[in-house]
Fold this protein.
Amino acid sequence: MAEARAEYRQHVYRPPRGAADLLLIRHGESEAARPGRSFPMKDGHGDPALHPAGEAQAAAVAERLKSQDLAAIYVTTLRRTHQTAAPLATHLGLTPVEEPDLREVHLGEWDGGLYRIRAAERDPAFARAMARQEWGELPGAETTAALHVRVRAGLMRIAARHGDQRVAVFVHGGVIGAALAMACGARSFAFNGAANGSISRLVIRGDEMTICAFNDCAHLA
């Protein structure tokens, strides 16, 4: 009789013991590129500020995550991640920590805003990069392999500090693409194109990475 009353509910995913739960948040929209005018540069990377639309996205991210039990907030060396993280950091009373290896892919001669223009014009080098899934097709750019090496190193450093904790990591579209492709063995650019202000989720335990969400935009208008 007791066996007849037993219930076996469906499984609800929880990160395994010791795993770090990383919310990968793409920075808000940054200011527009304009022909003949470069963004400010930082360590060879274009460093634009947020567009007003990006500031609104940052506020929406904060509203979405302010009730989360977050152990830390991480940003990159580029100010658009700092600006996107700022509203959430204020809500939670946390000081963001920089992880330099999670900065955006280095676009070589096209950094500083020229990449957006060349992409819109369907420059042949851009077309080759997309077709071959290789950033190194752009003049002077970082290779996809080099990007993956440093992104993995940055993620693993964060994960090693935060077993059994959830953290918010404010990063870039190319970094999210690299991280999720590595996690599931997909083609290198399979996860490129996460929306500004979107949230993806990656659970890391040891060398194992598990994708739990990609491009969650439910909090965005």
About this structure: The chain has one domain: 17-216. The domain at 17-216 is CATH 3.40.50.1240 (Rossmann fold). The helical segments are 2-5, 52-65, 79-92, 114-120, 124-132, 144-161, 173-184. The two ends are 53 Å apart (CA to CA).
